[in-house]
User: What shape does this take?
Amino acid sequence: MKTSAAHGAPRDHYFVPQPSLYPVILSGGMFLLALGFIQSINGFLLGRWVMLGGFAVILYVLFGWFGKVIGESQSGAYRDWEDRSFRYGMIWFIATEVMFFAAFFGALFYVRIISVPVLGGMAETHGTSLWPDFSGTWPTSGPKGTPFTPMGAWGIPALNTALLLSSGATVTWAHWALLRGRRTQLNLGLAATILLGATFLGFQAWEYHHAYSELGLTMGAGVYGATFFMLTGFHGFHVTLGTVMLLVILLRCLSGHFTAERHFAFEGVAWYWHFVDVVWLILFVFVYWL
Amino acid sequence: MSIATTHPAEAPHEHYPSGLLRWLTTTNHKDIGTMYMTFALVMFFVGGIMILAVRAELFQPGLQLMRPEFFNQLIGVHALVMIFAALMPAATGFANWMIPLMIGAPDMALPRLNNWGFWLLPPAAILLTLPFTLALFGIGDGAIATGWTFYAPLSVQGGMGVDFAILAVHILGISSIMGSINIIVTIFNMRAPGMTMMKLPLFAWGWLITAFLLIATLPVLAGAVTMLLTDRHFGTHFFNAAGGGDPILFQHLFWFFGHPEVYILLLPVWGLMPHVLSTFSHKPVYGYTAQVYAFIAIGVLSVVVWAHHFFTAGMPVPALIYFMFSTMAISLPLAVLFFCWIATMWKGAMSFETPMLFAVGFIVLFGIAGLTGLILADVAADAQYHHSYFVVAHFHYALFAGGIMGVMTGVYYWLPKWTGHMYNEKLGKLHFWLTVVSFNLTFMPQFFLGLAGMPRRIPDYALQFAEFNAISTVGAFILGFSQLIFAWNVWSCVRGGAKADGRVWEGADGLEWELSSPPPHHSWEVQPQIK
Assistant: This one.
């Protein structure tokens, strides 16, 4: 089944899939989602339904396209050569995600190091300021912002750090089990990872509720609120995606998919999970703690 | 490079859908490349019509044809269309067509993803231009009117068109990222046995660096426009000083993407240039290794110079000096490229078919772009030239003479390979001369306008600028209509014409010329061995 090219010798056939309608349908779904989103934020009544339609189309494609890929994988269409393509592809996809978060971290560092201190020091440096009472210390909602209480680091956020770090360990534990052919440990490890991820999300939701209802900490609470919710929000969104991906992997494991030699999907999701984990650590330090 | 070719076995007769369904579902890199090129050509004319309307308005001082708001929409969407929907797809089309042929790969590494990358473009183009149509029906106030740069706070206050543009940019970004991932994986994983990285064709090298730049910078643009979206609709204060934010933060984020974007548009062209110059000089490429390292150096430098786009926005002096010197440092690797291009032609047995004409025209005109760029990079001088027509002229020398004429070079060079027919050489040469003359007629006066102090992005201007504006408009219309010759030439080449053999050009060297013209639907199914 497996062919590895002898060094320098022509490799055998590369799997080029048959024509497929999924990509173009996916684009259609994304078009509807985007259009519906624009409509709803601009107050058109139909917007929500267009969005919902687009989302349904995307879900259909996700099931169909991934189902097809899983089928191809199970039928042995992918060998070392194809497997390497997927691995490289996933690595560079995660690289784009790193840069996406870098934009928001960049914004956080910019406001903390430059814009807020500069606004606070206007009276000194320029001899005049629109807001002479503004001290420019972090955390702040800005010179004209609403008062709020910042989120402390050592309650739920610290607990969430522990949860995510342990989930990184359990997914690695599951990977070891896969490599050694211990299927029960594999399934247990994955289930534990999913459970930890879901608990993290539950705590995060509770924290948001707490922030909005008791702390006055909203998206509108100046740059602190903006950076806080954008960073934790996009991170939470990625944890959600990662949890769904892990769930799919667990279901595939339960159906007996993956071998010690061939399990790119498992590893790809594990990489993604570790990436989400690392983002949280940076986030914990710079958003909650310091 | 010497190649031992094993002729690929005739592909088994698989069933492929025909008609529209073929194009909707295809996973073949040649089909997808053709779709990219066609889309780029169509959008080139769409963006061109917009700017001809703008030039018509600027023909004389005073407001004749349109409201200033509509004028602003046209220039912004013109830029977004030309950059994201014409130049970038054209470059990706080249990559799709040529990289597998040049590196001896059976196809792109991720063919279905490849198809998705293309089919994200039409929805994005629709989102970008739909507000024009909606405004006709009284919905919204038209397309984005901030220029292509989305600067806050103007974009925070703008109408629904900004939302459309933000979502369009998101989708275009996903498309480019998918294309980049595919190209990187293809180059790393699909090269023919024996093709080491230092035997990789320069075109593939140029694209590899482009793809890395896209991966590094497009997500940052996505992040920036997302913050803009939440500032507009969800009450955040990223770009609002009242909440502790800063409008200049937007400029940093935008140009962190925006400056590398210039090299994203140009690196594929710099990659294909040595192939063309070497073919028509009947000499091997001069300084292959130097060019590879120059590409890498430019790629690295391009992500650390962004703030030279807003020297006048206010920045500490050390920052100004850093961004000035780092920007000027880019001219060093760029000079290496110019030197290698000229040295490739030096004492060669040169012949001047259309691609070579465009290549030589590219070198001269792009040289002007580079030299005027040095002037703008100078902090002290930039205070005078910033936001003037000098900038407009500079980046059109870079992106029309550098980008579009580079793409035309590639199209004329590879069109016989793609279609199996020769294009009409006489029409090609006519197209070249009309383009070069009218291009300079359009943009050279804009340098003088800028030096004289005419600001960009205004629909009306002082009387003293009238002559140069009139000349520029005449040039623009000749330039625009000359491109119809190009479209006609491409179209007739696709339909028929003298048969092209596999090598096409006498001096051509490389794997792609070992295949027939047009190449079989599946090529290099058995990879060639590179010695």
